[in-house]
Amino acid sequence: xxxxxxxxxxxxxxxxxxxxxxxxxxxxxxxxxxxxxxxxxxxxxxxxxxxxxxxxxxxxxxxxxxxxxxxxxxxxxxxxxxxxxxxxxxxxxxxxxxxxxxxxxxxxxxxxxxxxxxxxxxxxxxxxxxxxxxxxxxxxxxxxxxxxxxxxxxxxxxxxxxxxxxxxxxxxxxxxxxxxxxxxxxxxxxxxxxxxxxxxxxxxxxxxxxxxxxxxxxxxxxxxxxxxxxxxxxxxxxxxxxxxxxxxxxxxxxxxxxxxxxxxxxxxxxxxxxxxxxxxxxxxxxxxxxxxxxxxxxxxxxxxxxxxxxxxxxxxxxxxxxxxxxxxxxxxxxxxxxxxxxxxxxxxxxxxxxxxxxxxxxxxxxxxxxxxxxxxxxxxxxxxxxxxxxxxxxxxxxxxxxxxxxxxxxxxxxxxxxxxxxxxxxxxxxxxxxxxxxxxxxxxxxxxxx
Amino acid sequence: xxxxxxxxxxxxxxxxxxxxxxxxxxxxxxxxxxxxxxxxxxxxxxxxxxxxxxxxxxxxxxxxxxxxxxxxxxxxxxxxxxxxxxxxxxxxxxxxxxxxxxxxxxxxxxxxxxxxxxxxxxxxxxxxxxxxxxxxxxxxxxxxxxxxxxxxxxxxxxxxxxxxxxxxxxxxxxxxxxxxxxxxxxxxxxxxxxxxxxxxxxxxxxxxxxxxxxxxxxxxxxxxxxxxxxxxxxxxxxxxxxxxxxxxxxxxxxxxxxxxxxxxxxxxxxxxxxxxxxxxxxxxxxxxxxxxxxxxxxxxxxxxxxxxxxxxxxxxxxxxxxxxxxx
Lengths: 450, 327
Description:
The structure holds 2 protein chains of 2 kinds. Chain A has helices at about 120-130, 150-165, 225-240, 255-270, 275-290, 335-350, 430-445, and strands at about 5, 15-20, 30, 35-40, 45-50, 55-60, 65-70, 70-75, 245-250, 295-300, 300-305, 310, 315, 320, 325, 360-365, 385-390, 395-400, 410-425. Chain A is of the alpha+beta class. The longest helix of chain A is centred in the C-terminal third of the chain and has 17 residues, at about 335-350. Chain A is elongated and about 100 Å long. Chain B is α/β, with parallel strands linked by helices. Chain B folds into 2 domains: about 1-185, Thiamin diphosphate (ThDP)-binding fold, Pyr/PP domains (Rossmann fold); about 195-325, Rossmann fold. Classes of the chains: A alpha+beta, B alpha/beta. The interface of A and B includes residues 121, 122, 143 and 149 of A.
């Protein structure tokens, strides 16, 4: 039986290779492991050895040809043995022993759709989805070949019956009888790639069993409910959104001055004026300038929210909680400050009502209170973004009315209260430019506070 | 069990209920000694006398108005509109008085009134004796509209109507009066208002119909069955309120729906049923929802060939069913 020589997959993301040089010709005798050809890809150049000893029966592609990984490029067998006229491909991702042979020009993964499916009725679409039916496999008997409900039900019935029947003898040789070369991902010498992607992603290593006792120098602290919730939210968020963090620096001089001027006045009304209300107002200004930052990603579209409910991360014992200031855009600085005081206080006392931790459209985390300069916060789902505010520090900064980069006689060094603003955003929704536009408005609002 | 036609069933049911309930009175044109133009009240004048079977003037508005007054005073009037075509002078009484009463008195007053009206074409009645009015009146909440199509359902629904606390427009298809016969049990039974009935089970498509069209649909279904196409025929029986659950249940199995009525196609029962299906059974649909009804012309023509053109019949219904089955 002739043995196929296939184009190896020379790396995980490398889907094709170019035959740079054939080292043998049709009719040549080759020994197993002898070099057959040189292959180059955009990442690597390599030589491909012969999978078996024998005669090169057929070479399908000339030098210079670029073919997809998995394509049969030559056949080695006994002299006089017949080789197919047209090359096929081996589905590198298929189960061993079920290599599909399709035309070389087709993508290796799936054959081209055999036909136009035409219109699919709602019930057929629903049944197909519920039963994971590939409608291209279903023969349509309705008007102009339309796939009817009966067609898809009959297909499912036949499929289920086939699944229950004993597996038929596979058309190709069972895996054990295939040359290692033809068993993609077998881990053998001729494994054509470093690691073939499997149908299912490999499972992460099993977590250490919960029953394992803590060692002598260890202590096992059982998870609190809050800890578990935080863990779930963090992991789910990272899995849901591609996180990107962009950082700007704000000169807080105006805000610090404003706060100093109003602190006593607010205190007289029983309100402790912190920096948080300023950041919230600056966020609202940013969200109004870039509405896409105040949104929810949905599969059917981006839901822009015209309410501004700002979540505010508050550290509590063994975790953090995010009370929400609803309709923050409608509150004065005094009203915001009062709510911030109240929510933070009750968050620490564990006395928040369920509605008070729901509905945030954007979130603020003030990690600077514990000395952090900047951070890469995790998005509070389903928000598009979260703003992290670093510690306000006096720093020496260069102020200039002259050229922004080149040396200028108008440059001088000043001592200013500065804070880094770290904005983490969902890259599905915002690109860097839009994210920076939001952050620039936040920065400008703080710097030009009046 | 007796086999009766529809008009006999109406008359016998009225007589039985009048014997039982002395509050039932009949008001209408020629309902007395003449026994009604269709003989639906024949013999009732002789049995119950002129105080319970009352000949009215040729004034539909007053027939219904008198009925409303009687109902408010504790009687159970049955008003007969000689032909449904003539009901429109009574429209204001029906819509603005009878149908509104419970609502405008916050439930303090109700109008337990039955209005019987023969409707439908195909009997050579021409423009003024052939109309279908069910869609017009079904538009007004506060009024029940029932359209039984078999003797069994006529008795059961008429008895339900005579027990209802609100006005019931009891529509009798006049072509079925003597054409449709069926067994009518002697015992008392009720067909509840608002309940459809599957008259024939099938898996391939659902045909929703009532009245005369029930029988045309059953004939068409027989025809298709010879080709192995199983049509489910659902008799709506009540138009207002429609039996939504039965409609959706049937379509969820067959995934195809055809609605048939002899009333004009547009803005009718077909549109309402189609909208219910589209809104609530969308993911069960395997074909467009079809309506088949009388053409949108102002009246049922008198000329026999034109009348035949107007009236949906089994042959053309079967064509629509076939189209749907083969979709």
